[in-house]
Amino acid sequence: MPLRGSRTAGPWGRRPPPPLLLLLVALAACAARASEITFELPDNAKQCFYEEIAQGTKCTLEFQVITGGHYDVDCRLEDPDGTVLYKEMKKQYDSFTFTASRNGTYKFCFSNEFSTFTHKTVYFDFQVGEDPPLFPSENRVTALTQMESACVSIHEALKSVIDYQTHFRLREAQGRSRAEDLNTRVAYWSIGEAIILLVVSVGQVFLLKSFFSDKRTTTTRVGS
């Protein structure tokens, strides 16, 4: 599921951009082949995704619950015949790698049907196949040059950087959600304590006032 973007004019006008920039853009395009989606999963809901995969293709499914409830979700992966390849219940995050046994449409679903009132935010990364080699040359006789070796090293380093950035963004989003939830609970608890303190204070004032108030008694004489 590739993403398409609009093309905008660069700051170089009609002049070609520097070769180093072209190299970095090409490396980034090669590294960004995975399908990454973040979506809302309501309570008592189930969301499924489908992917056409060729036989013998190596695939990896990685997911993580970012916000909602106990940060858990059910996940299920099936092949075109309906055989369950992967199934986990109430998982916060996990990763599963498999090789397609046949051609067809593979289905993976996320379920929040066990939750009655809490919706979740789920992130998943589904990688189909492996990145093509940076210098695809099957009948290559000579070894890689120093520049080609440096490009391969930069390519691998950029892929690692992208993975680290993704995980750090997920952890930051999850931590922000926990902090906001905790802040809401603390605010409600503080308001409740303030109301209770006000009621107790007013009650004590009226109680002390009743102790020091004069109680007049009237005497009634009964005539003979």
Describe the structure.
The chain is an alpha+beta fold. Among the domains are: 35-130, Jelly Rolls (Sandwich), CATH 2.60.120.680; 144-197. Helices cover 36% and strands 28% of the residues. The chain is built from two helices and eight strands; from the N terminus they run αββββββββα. The strands form two sheets. It has a four-stranded antiparallel β-sheet with strand order 1-8-3-6. It has a four-stranded antiparallel β-sheet with strand order 2-7-4-5, with no helix packed on it. A hairpin with a 5-residue loop joins strand 4 and strand 5. Helix 1 (19-31) packs across helix 2 (146-212). The radius of gyration is 32 Å and the shape is elongated. The model is unreliable at 1-33 (pLDDT under 50). Residues 1-34 form the signal peptide. One of its GO terms (biological process) is protein transport.
What is the compact description of this entry?
The protein is an alpha+beta fold and 224 residues long. The protein is built from 2 helices and 8 strands.
